[in-house]
Write a structure and sequence with these properties.
7 strands, about 250 residues, alpha/beta
Length: about 250
């Protein structure tokens, strides 16, 4: 494993499982100290423990990304634990499956709150710490559905991920001379526990059919892209949309 992030500190949201957990492990493997955050305390503590047992440095803090006070507490916790904050990975998210006619306002607001407002609050809360870093890097996890219309369902998810895509570019321009790079990663269909219920069903086959490479991606493949953007290898990269999607958006 390359050693690009020694001396850096990262905060990863939704790091108790899936892409977030893989990202936390990858950043730690490259030398970063990582603050694991999640609403699932058991899962978050488990990932932090796994990183520590492997020789890395990690702590866990509970974080509901829709709460501004909890966001400020998480940033403060990173600064207390590591003395700095260099990398912010806004990964926490939730999905919705209904068509627009069947999407309640409550469901809409819940998805927007986590997937969109949570990213806004993260960048706002971490701004001063990232600026003080000298190596500030924000990676916002969007989606292929932040760019495409997908299957015509999940309107709140598409709207939120599309907003993350544009918000990323907006803040990248705002912080371009402040030493903070801001990029978005757009995963395709990734083999996480969220897709377990689709395994062996026509839904899984539909995802494979629209992915030119003909397979699901892995959380580790997304984490590799995040680690690149977090590192100085990407020192001249900001406002980028990085698609890790097996060719889905190339169609």
């Amino acid at each position: 494993m390359v050693d690009r992030l020694t001396g850096r500190a990262a905060l990863v949201t939704g790091a108790g499982s899936g892409i977030g957990a893989a990202t936390a492990r990858r950043l730690a493997a490259e030398g970063a100290s990582v603050l694991i955050t999640d609403v699932n305390d058991v899962a978050g503590e488990r990932v932090a423990g796994q990183i520590t047992e492997a020789g890395g440095q990690a702590r866990f803090v509970h974080l509901d990304v829709t709460s501004e006070p909890q966001w400020q507490a998480a940033v403060d916790a990173a600064l207390r634990a590591f003395g700095r904050l260099d990398i912010l990975v806004n990964n926490a998210g939730m999905g919705d499956l209904a068509a627009i006619e069947d999407t309640s306002l409550e469901d809409w607001n819940a998805t927007i709150g986590v997937d969109q407002t949570g990213v806004f609050l993260g960048m706002k809360s971490a701004a001063a710490a990232l600026a003080a870093s000298g190596h500030g890097s924000v990676i916002n996890i969007s989606s292929i559905f932040g760019t495409s219309g997908g299957f015509g369902t999940s309107p709140a998810y598409h709207a939120a991920k599309g907003a993350v895509r544009t918000l990323t570019k907006n803040i990248a321009l705002h912080w371009a001379e402040a030493g903070i790079r801001v990029n978005s990663v757009h995963p395709g269909f990734i083999d996480t526990p969220l897709l377990d219920q689709a395994k062996g069903t026509p839904v899984e086959q539909a995802m494979l059919d629209v992915t030119p490479m003909g397979r699901l991606g892995t959380p580790a493949e997304i984490a590799a892209g995040v680690a690149y953007l977090a590192s100085d290898d990407a020192s001249f990269v900001t406002g980028l949309e990085l698609y890790i999607d097996g060719g889905y958006l190339a169609r």
